[in-house]
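REQUEST ID: PR-0412
SUBMITTED BY: lab tech R.K.
PRIORITY: routine
TASK: structure prediction, single protein chain
INPUT:
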Amino acid sequence: MESGEQRRRRLQELRQEAAEYYRGHGVAERLEEALNALFPLRPADLYGELANYFSKFSKAPVICKLVGRKVLNGIGQPTLEVEVYCTVKNYEKRICSTVMSSYGQIPENALPEIAEADEKERVDSVNAAVEWVNESLNAMLKDLKPTDQCKVDKILGEYFTKKAEEKKENEKQGEEEAAEATLLFTSSTPPATAPPGKKKAAKPGKKGTVEEKTIPPAEPVEVVLCGSSAIGGTSLAIAKAGATISNTPLYLYVALLKCSQDPPKEMTLPLPMVTVLNCEKTSPAKLKLVKEVMLIPPVHLSLKQGIERILDIQKEMMRLLEPPGKMPSSQPADGKKGRAHRTGKEASTRALKRISHLGCLITGCDNPEQPLLLVQTACTNIGLELGTDMYLAINCAAQELMDYVKGKYEILTGMFKSPDEMVDMYVKLLNEFPFVIALIDPLRKEDRQQWSNLCHALGSKCYLIAEDAATYISRLKTDQNIKIPTCSGVVLKYINQTKVSDLVELTGLLDGQRHITILGSPDGESSDDSLVDLAVGLGARFIKLGGLSRGERVTKYNRLLAIEEELAENRTLREANLEFIAFADESHAEKQLLDVLPPPEQDSLPAERSQPALQVHSLPTQLPDTSSLT
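STATUS: complete
OUTPUT:
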């Protein structure tokens, strides 16, 4: 049993240890400083102010746990959510989460068995991603600072490379085993002998001997590593956590990463490409060329004013698409009494009753001019002039139209055009509708010569943008041999193994080549609005979010409005600009995006070739008699 003297001695030792411990951390001095600083202020919440004062001396938060789980995106498909937990002031705290958007390469009209296989692959990939986050990445990133984005992304990149190599090794081993099994089978089977007889030679003058101009074959579909969304989801979640801990908006946090921690004096909002029409490609509609019709507000309007104007146009379009029996008495002057009936009652009903997963109206058309004339008439009816008060962009999605048997694009049901004829068609279309200032995927990425021809013909007055015609960000950044069609810019999507550092680096390289960057929202969008902050922080020229319906899309427009308001209050909002690229000679055009890696020593485009202003002629106030709306 401990005596009284021993207890006193033990207590004295503890007091000395405590004094040395607190002295070593400077507690007494800092407490005195805090009390002296706060007494003149006499704050209402004294202990709150003391907590704030001492918090700056606490250790920086570190990652303590990552949690991955399977959730649903905006169209009911499985996707990945990543949560970040940090140790903050000795306690585990949930900092933030992010939900990945999913991107599918299967066309809408795919066969049922292909769609079913794609769905199974998607589920397996999400399950693998959840496993990666909860096991490997959780252990690898533990105790790292969430503000060290470069270090985190380097670890994520190395892990992905390791997984990709493991997959290649497994596939190689499987191929070798299959080859051995085939060899054993063929060695035990007698060779088949061909029946005697001569092979008939093709007679001269037959159709089979006529050589037709062939098109470049389609490049193989990009292979997506199962579980790769764990890389992108974790990188973005860590960036959000770093911004939260730094008490900095995510868009400014990303801008600081891009500017090497040098805060930008002004920031520009990306111009929204707002989808108002999704043209269906099934019967009875004949038009296949146009997938989306988008509105772009002029730069002199605020984002709020631009969205309000787009909503007015959309409302008038819906009125024009009302079935004939429900049309109001006041219709635009036509000169043709039966026009509404001739356009087709069924098509009007389809357009009004259905909303696309892109958040816009679905309509069917019979030619490329119809959707443009619809928007033109709607604008005219409410006193707006296209080309001055609003601009148009078209997502052509030409890669979905190629008939590889004929070697031509099927732009209308039964109407086919060669790649060269497509270029001529676009030139004619933009001469007729000069308020169209952007074409997305007007050709397949394989038709490189036609991309070059199109850029030379239209590049000085229209953005020629590669979306599907580009490739994944990881290949754009690392593959030195990648070839991208000549274009004005690319649509970047934050999917799969894309990391925040990849976006920062790639957009910097594109900026150096004077190519525009568009941040795009995938079809399988989620309610996570981080894409907007990425677009603002990276300085994207445009942002493509879909329509002004569906919660997962509207929430992003709301976030963009909030950022505009915040920048305006801080007086750091700079007006956007529309500046086109005048493409140089043929030899230079072939190098436009190939030269992005490595960056050139000099600016590839002289400043005097750019055209900052848009000038278009006045438009008619009504639909021409030769048009019809389905």
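NOTES: Confidence is low (pLDDT under 50) at residues 204-211, 327-353, 585-630.
REVIEWED BY: pending
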